[in-house]
C-alpha cells in the first residue's frame, strides 16, 4: 500500500456487505426521516440541543441500543456502542444550529447520516459475526462551542480507535458535474478570541471630556483589522462582530466586547496572524485611553486528511454507483472541531452535495431550507451507507486499518 501516492491496494477478497448495510438502514428508514425532520424543525444552539439529544437517544433505544445520555459530563452529548473485541470505529453526530438562521449548516443531515451509518455497521457486525466495535457519539456545539474538544479532554476518543467518521453537507453546485461527494477535505484552523474594552462613563452631552469611550475602542479595532485584511494571505480569514456596543446614546460607553475568529491553514500560521490582530486591539485601546482583556476559546485545529480512509471511501461509494472525489488539494476556508479529533485518532471527514440554489451555501438561510428536503435526506443516507462500509473495511481489513494509522502518524508537512 502506497500512502504517499494516495492509492489503496490489497484488502480482503470478500465482497463489501452492501446488501446488509442497505437493509439495516431501510428497516428504519421512516424513523430516520422523522429524526431528521424533528432536529431540523427544532433548531437549538450549542450545548442547548435538548430536543436533538432526546430525539436521537429515544430513536437509538427503540432500535435496541443501550444509550448513555448526558455522556462525558455534557448535558447534550450521548453515546451508544455495539460489538466486542477488535478495533473501534466512532461515528460523530453533530446537531447544533446557528442563531436566527437555524440549520443553515445542515447539522440535521450530519446527525442523520452518522446515526444511520452506526445502525448499519452495528447490524452488519451482528449478522456477519465479525470482531470489532462501533460507537455513536453525540458531539454538541460544533458552531464555536468546541464540543469535540471537550469530549477529547473527557476521554471520549480513548482506546483502540481505528477511525472516527462523519460527513458534512454543502451545496451540490460546488462539485464538478456528476460528483456527489468529496472524501478528503482540507479544513483550516480557527483561533477564537473575545476582547473586552473598559472605559469610563460620562454624560455624552454634558461632560463628554470626562469619559473614555469603549465603543470608540471597538470601532477603531474593527477599522484596524479591516485594514489588516489587505495584507493577509488569500487562504486566511479574519472576521468578527461587536457583541456589546454600549447601552444608550447619552452615556459614554464604558464597556464593549468583540468576538473574532482568525482562520489560517495551520495553527502555527494562525497564531502568527492572531498576534497581528491583537496589536490592532491594543492600538485601539491605547488611542482611546481604554483598558482591555482577552477571553480565549479553544482553537479548532486544521483537519488532517487521511489518504487511506479517503481513498477507501471513494472506492466503496463507486461500488454503489456514486462518484466521489478522493481528495482535494485546495483548502476550504471553513473550520471544524473535527480537526482536533484528526490530531488524536485516524479520522475521516468528507462532504456531500445537496441541491441548493446557485446563490446558496452553508450559513445562509436558503441553505437551511435546502437541508430539510427529501432530496438532501436521501443523499445523506447514501453517504451513511458509504460510511458504514468504510467502518466495516476498517474493522475487517488489517491492511486498511494499518494504512489509516500510518497516515495518521505521518508528520504534517505543512508548517
Task: Give a quick set of tags describing it.
415 residues; alpha/beta; Aminopeptidase; Alpha-Beta Plaits; 2 domains; eight-stranded mixed β-sheet; four-stranded antiparallel β-sheet; 12 helices; 12 strands; 39% helix; elongated; disordered N terminus
Helix-strand category: alpha/beta
Low-confidence stretches: 1-13
Which CATH class of the largest domain? Alpha Beta
Tell me about the largest β-sheet: 8 strands, mixed
Q: Using the alpha-carbon principal axes, give the shape.
A: elongated
How are the strands of the largest sheet arranged? Answer: 1-2-4-3-5-12-6-11
CATH architecture of the largest domain: 3-Layer(aba) Sandwich
Question: What is the β-strand count?
Answer: 12
Helical percent range? 25-40%
Question: What is the residue-mean pLDDT, rounded to a whole number?
Answer: 94
What is the total domain count?
2
Q: How do the helices and strands follow one another from N- to C-terminus?
A: HHHEEEHEHEEEHEEHEHEHEHHH
Strand content: 15-25%
